[in-house]
Amino acid sequence: MLSKYINLAIEDLVNTTSQLEREIVIYGKIEDKTNLSKVTTKSKHHQVQGRFMGGQRCRVRKTTQTVNDTHVTDYTFTFKIRNDTLNYQSSMEYNATVDKDFLLGFNKVADSVITKNRYTFNSSEVTLTLGTGEDTTDIIIPSVVYEVDVFVDNEGKESNWCKVDIEVDSVLDYLSLNYPDIDTVKFTIGLSNLPIDIIDPIVDMNPTDEEREMIDNIWDKYTYPPSTDD
Q1: How far is CA 164 from CA 28, 29, 72, 102, 185, in A?
Q2: Is 178's pLDDT higher than 70?
Q3: What phi, psi does 177 have (nearest 5°)?
Q4: Distance (Å, rounded) from C-alpha 43 to C-alpha 147?
């Protein structure tokens, strides 16, 4: 039913995009959120989720942010095809600009809803460590974007749990341009450039069974059935 609805609904869409998305994903808890005020930009994400008949997840996201004292809202239908690499998540992301009516229709066939506040930080002079063990080299990356998604409960209250996405594309472009001899890159980027402390961070790349359970528990806690008035 869902795939039939989507096929009919997006027949006339022309504003569609596809892009390779590469990121490091980290989960953790923020004990003190005071310094979230140092954010570069903030937006609210209301995400309605479903699945195609084959099981592939998809979503419609309503994004709201304030630009020059004006509330700006957009709606995007998205699905991703994962293709992870050694040390970061990689996926081909397909997007289509939709509208409020599409969101309301999608809500009738969706299976879950999640809301997050996204705090985006543009950090400069970030230290990246190439290699592992004793064979490592530290490199200063001019700019790295951190997207800190703080989960919101069903009553609209912001929690202390968060998901941090570190955009890798600009990092890989910088390494490719300045270190062309590097073929396979294994690297780590810390969270020290963030103005907030992430407690007990878990990198979502080959996590242990205990870490996977923790990540799943976070999503389960802040994922809710669709309501009839979204």
Answers
A1: 8, 10, 23, 28, 21
A2: yes
A3: -75, -40
A4: 10
Residue 230, C-beta contacts closer than 8 angstroms, at least 6 positions apart:
46, 48, 103, 104, 107, 113
Q: Are 5 and 106 in contact (CB under 8 A)?
A: yes
Phi, psi of 174 (to 5 degrees): -65, -45
Instruction: Quote the strand ranges of the chain, DSSP E.
Output: 16-30, 41-51, 57-67, 70-82, 89-98, 112-132, 135-152, 158-167, 187-189, 198-203
Q: Higher-confidence residue: 36 or 2?
A: 36
**Is residue 130's pLDDT more than 60?**
yes
What burial class does residue 203 get, using C-beta atoms within 10 Å of its C-beta: 0-12 exposed, 13-18 middle, 19+ buried?
Answer: middle
* Structural domains in the chain, sorted by start: 2-221 (2.40.320)
Give the orientation angle of helix 100-107 with respect to helix 2-9, to 10 degrees: 170
Distance CA 205, CA 85 (A): 9
- The pLDDT, as a whole number, for residue 5 is 42
Q: What is the DSSP letter of 180?
A: T
pTM: 0.85
pLDDT greater than 80 at residue 198: yes
Give the C-alpha separation, 50 to 2, whole Å: 8
